[in-house]
Amino acid sequence: MKRKNVVLNRPVFAQQVFDSRSLTVLTTLFHRFPEEGDYELTIRRDERVVHRAHVRVGVEEASSQLDLDLATLREIEGAYSLRAGGVMGFYVSQGIARYRVEITQPGARGRRVWMDSGRVVPEGDLFAVTLVRPGVYRVILAEGKGEGEIRVRLPRGERYRPDQAVRITVGKGGSLEPTQVWILSGQSVVFWCTVPASLRVEWMKEEEPAEPPVQPFWSA
Amino acid sequence: MAHMTVAVSEGVFRRSFDLLQRNLVFEKADSASFGSFTAGYDVKAHLEGGSVDLRADGTIRVKELDLRWDRLRFTLGLNIPELCVGGGCVDMPWPIPDICLPRVCIFSGDPDISISPDLAAFVAQEVSFTARLVVRYFDAALPLPSPDLCAPLRVEPPPAHNQWHIHIDPETIDVDLFDFPDIVGDLIEDTLTDAVKALIPGGWVRDLILAIIGSVADLIRTILDIPDEIEEWLSDLFNVSFGLLDSIGTVILDFFSRCNPLYRMDDPLEIMPASNGLIAVRIPVRNLSVSVNDAEMVVQADVGA
Questions:
Q1: Which residue in chain B is spatially nearest to A188 when comparing CA positions?
Q2: pTM given for the model
Q3: Strand B60-79 versus strand B51-54 pairing type
């Protein structure tokens, strides 16, 4: 029997800490552009600038969501285009590098920083983690005293789709709603920050044997 | 009235046929891409047994020759489709648009697996045909055709002198369809499952990947687009897609009809060997013909000038 060794995307299985201030594989940061205009995008990999581009918001024929894979960025001609109110998603498909995204807008009174992921996820933006390794994860907010828990387990014969996501709302004082969610391995948790927040998700321990049933989908 | 007549009994004819058909070897290898998978074969077979019946209508009936597979290696290569985690969309309250998550894939590239089980022990077929006997004249002065399609099938090298050849010329050839038993489906599925599992490290990583796939059996069925059982799919592949039945028929036809005579007669025919300083006596043979009845084969010829 002949076979070609498969090359696994190892960071997907090895990553155990996810931080909105330091984007890695399996994390996604969504920034919403509520106002039309021209913006400047700067991507840093391990604190070195690797990509600069313009973002034009308010282009009628553009899509309302544009995802950028920070691990495979290429120079573009012109600018990224988005509809008014559109969302840009920044994610990392592979590798062990850490990324920081900055969105600014030049103005009469100087440069306005709309988002600097190295500091905080701005109000209205979202931070998502796709959790692969089974176990219990702790969610920590740098602001306030909010803390939550995500339990991840392998599917046990039930209908399984990785493309399911659960939403957690981050509110005033760093509160999380709900504070505890259950997902299956490979599914995602999306934190909707209604206040500026910095989030950190850490794998804590193996999954305990008896788990409550997984919520297939949670909606506010 | 012919100058000479030779009769060959049905028993002798059968013996002659048996000696000739033992030399028929079918050997072929090929592969093809079917989009999401590749399939190929490397086969070798020979004929055994069967019965020969001379018939009153001037034909011969060859029945139930066993097509024995010395090698029936089937190669199947699959590209494992992209397997990803994440994705899906989240409803957001107005005016925020629904957010769709990117997918992150767990293989960097398209891993592929390939298996090559030998299925010779699991399949047997029979070949039957009706034929007439035809006479051909081999003129040694003429060059062989180029390319010489008989070269791989010829039992003996072409003669250095002229000969009359009596060939069996099949009119219709029936080859049983490939019909693989259930056990072959199980064998292929098990071999593929082992191959997929061997690609992936063990523990929870393998459990997760197999959960995404559903099961290796599901993966195989999806890639191969198999609606029924694997053995039925495999039989169709051999019967239709590979065109092996046509190839077998062509080889049998060429072997008997063109490349290997059942009987030969030199022209001129030596009737007295050289001796006592005298040269051999040879007579030219003209108008050789052959016929068959239900008891014997009859060869008639004239002695030419």
A1: B86
A2: 0.67
A3: antiparallel
Q: Given this model, what pLDDT does residue A3 score?
A: 46
Q: Does A97 lie in the same domain as A162?
A: no
Q: Which of A98, A116, A134 represents a domain boundary (last residue)?
A: A116
The answer to which of B177-186, B202-211, B278-287 has the lowest mean pLDDT is B202-211
d(C-alpha A217, C-alpha B90), whole Å: 9
Which one is predicted more confidently, A53 or B82?
A53
Chain A residues touching B91 at Cβ < 8 A: 167, 219
CA distance linking residue A82 with residue B186, whole number of Å: 53
> For residue A81, what are its two tokens?
């285009």
Check CB contact of B205 with chain A, cutoff 8 Å: yes
Establish, for the pair of chains A and B, how many residue pairs have beta carbons separated by less than 8 Å.
138
Q: Is A35 a member of any domain? A: yes
Question: Which residues touch B5 (CB under 8 Å, ≥6 apart)?
Answer: B298, B299, B300
**Can you give the pLDDT at residue A1?**
41
Across residues B109-120, what is the average pLDDT?
A: 82
Region class of B279: left (phi > 0), else alpha (psi between -120 and 50), else beta: beta
In B80-124, the DSSP E strands lie at 84-86, 89-90, 99-100, 103-105, 112-115
Question: Inter-chain contact A89–B90, Cβ cutoff 8 Å?
Answer: no
- Residue B223 has a pLDDT of 77
* Residue A192 predicted with pLDDT over 60: yes
Chain B hits for A9, CB-CB cut-off 8 Å, are 104-108
Q: Kindly identify which residue of chain A lies nearest to residue B73, measuring between CA atoms.
A: A1
CA distances from A90 to A41, A169, B145 (A): 11, 19, 69
Report whether pLDDT(A220) > 50: no
Q: Report the domain count for chain A.
A: 2
Q: Which residues of B touch A160 (CB under 8 A)?
A: 211-212
Domain that residue A152 falls in: 124-205
Q: Chain A within 8 Å of B208 (Cβ-Cβ)?
A: yes
Q: Which tokens in the block code for residue B97?
A: 């648009």
